[in-house]
Amino acid sequence: MKDVRDALFVAQRSDGTLVRRPMSPHLQVYRFQMSMFLSIANRITGVASSFGTLLLVWWLVAAASGAAAFATVQRVVGNPLGMIVLFGWTVALVYHFVASLRHLGWDAGFGFAKPTYRKTGIASIVATVVLTALIWAVGFSLWHNVPAAGG
Prior knowledge:
This protein is mainly alpha-helical. The chain has a single domain (26-144), classed as Up-down Bundle (3 helical TM bundles of succinate and fumarate reductases), CATH 1.20.1300.10. Helix content is 68%, strand content 4%. The protein contains four helices and two strands; from the N terminus they run E-E-H-H-H-H. It has a two-stranded antiparallel sheet with strand order 1-2. A hairpin with a 5-residue loop joins strand 1 and strand 2. Helix 1 runs antiparallel to helix 2, helix 1 crosses helix 3 and helix 3 packs antiparallel against helix 4 (114-144). 8% of the residues are buried. The model has no long low-confidence stretch (mean pLDDT 88).
């Protein structure tokens, strides 16, 4: 062996003879596809949903703690940066939910044909956009119709 790393590619067959294992293809070999993006996005949105849920927990604890704590959280969440974080959390929750439904179909044995997983991939992106817009539209309409506190 010329290089110590060569030892990592040596394996044994069941009869004991040595064979050289192939290297796994690197990312440079693969063409980036939508299915790869959707898979990576599903993992990222799962993590983002977890962190966003900490914001929800903070909001609930503050609501239970009293008016001063709740006002603090509302100031943080109500500023433009807080709204961007809430919007991102909504997108992450919705996409992760929709993608999980797609995976559930796969677990049941459906949707493995190339045209089908392409269509379901596009459908999951469209559903994420539509559902997120719907959630925010309904949320804003409800928010603007809530009477002011103390009035």
